[in-house]
Amino acid sequence: KLPAFYANVVLLNVSNLPFRLQKLKDMFISKFGSAPKFYVRAPGRVNLIGEHIDYCGYAVLPMAIEQDILIAVEPVKTQVVQLANTNSLYLDFNTNVNNIQINKTKPQWHNYFLCGLKGIQEHFGLNNPTGMNCLLDGTIPPSSGLSSSSALVCCAGLVTLKANGKTLSKVELAEICTKSERYIGTEGGGMDQSISFLAEEGTAKLIEFSPLRATDVRLPSGAAFVIANSCVEMNKAATSHYNIRVMECRLATKLLSKSKGLDWKKMLRLHDVQTKLGVSLEEMLTIVEEVLHPDPYSTEEICECLGISLEELRSQILSQNTQDVSTFKLYQRAKHVYSEAARVMEFKKICNEAPADAIQLLGELMNQSHISCREMYECSCPELDRLVDICLQFGAIGSRLTGAGWGGCTVSMVPTDKLNTFLKNVKKAYYQTNVQRLGVENNSLFATKPGRGALVFVEA
């Protein structure tokens, strides 16, 4: 019997295990010589709108998808964690639970598991944590912008929690997993982990921060959301693109704060500036125009504006993998964040009020979001832009990149009566005209609906 906090626990009799779970169990027995005691599932997500603003403190609007990370687990008496993957491309790994080492320079799959493991261990101060045998099966395309890495961190956190007989609320779990994913070097904001735990079937969620909370957002019934993978992979932890954007937003926060006489050393997020000034998002956009210039800022100019040395900039503000960056675009990043934050709130308002032209209005917001991501945040790529154009050409009302960008997926809003024709035409135009993408469209192009959050399965 599981602790009461598991709101969505499913108790399953062995004979009723779905095919995927049964297959995972058989592979586990073959691998470890014994049966798993429980299973943990954490979903991926698609962000409908609100890109690159969670780490700035602003609300986002994602939903969980059916694709997930699933782990079969057997707690063991030895203090060793053995990790295996149903995909032979991901090599086995084992380590002592009292000596967790996470290699930031090599973001291999097992390091994401170790993030979740370490996060729970440190939260509870576990001196003698339980060893485990774990077999992982994933259906989220890697490096696709659908949060496969965060789903793995969340799954590992939940695995460690259950194996050690501890309990936490879903909000606490989301916050711990957000912090623990930073062990691998990605300065994320918390959207991915929050929706993985807080998602509910049938509804998207407005995720807000400080404090973390989730509000149902009912999507219009006359449209489907379609995910299309550009087939360009981008790993956030393996490059500095993502962290550079985080630092640019942090630096913009510092300069805006100082210009308004605020205690800039304590200000980390663009949302903090708006809160302290007590102004609207529209007014913040005006302030950005007044304070920041469109030309890139050199590190020397930033130091001069803040009255600090280059060494202080590097040691007190910049992340480890942005130490050698010489120029930063502050105006463009701040403009994107404040305008995107306004689009999220407008998206939610339209969904709540459900006017007759809701689908058209939501589509326009998605299109504006992609333009801003492409031009102001520069996190798109030629393949994503082409895919967005194709989707709009064949009937999508709105289409945009989703996830970190620089590759990965688009999400498009398509009227349900045009869905089949849309899928057929996009397959032909994007996937079947390219040799490298031939044959992958069935796994790369699909309509989706809001799924449920993280689950623990045990055998009754």
TrEMBL record:
Enzyme class: transferase
EC number, as in UniProt: 2.7.1.157
The keyword Electron transport is annotated on this UniProt entry: no
Record PROSITE patterns: GALACTOKINASE, GHMP_KINASES_ATP
SUPFAM superfamilies according to UniProt: GHMP Kinase, C-terminal domain (SSF55060), Ribosomal protein S5 domain 2-like (SSF54211)
Catalytic activity annotation: N-acetyl-alpha-D-galactosamine + ATP = N-acetyl-alpha-D-galactosamine 1-phosphate + ADP + H(+)
Domain GHMP kinase N-terminal: 111-198
Keywords for this protein: ATP-binding, Kinase, Nucleotide-binding, Transferase
Domain Galactokinase N-terminal, first and last residues per copy: 28-75
InterPro entries assigned to the protein according to its UniProt record, in alphabetical order: Galactokinase (IPR000705), Galactokinase_CS (IPR019741), GalKase_N (IPR019539), GHMP_kinase_C_dom (IPR013750), GHMP_kinase_C_sf (IPR036554), GHMP_kinase_N_dom (IPR006204), GHMP_knse_ATP-bd_CS (IPR006203), Mevalonate/galactokinase (IPR006206)
A GO cellular-component term linked to this record: cytosol
GO MF, any single term: galactokinase activity
Domain of life of the native organism: Eukaryota
GO BP, sorted A to Z: galactose metabolic process
Annotated ranges, domain GHMP kinase C-terminal: 359-431
Family label: Belongs to the GHMP kinase family. GalK subfamily.
Record's subunit section: Monomer.
Name listed for the protein in its UniProt record: N-acetylgalactosamine kinase
Organism: Phoenicopterus ruber ruber
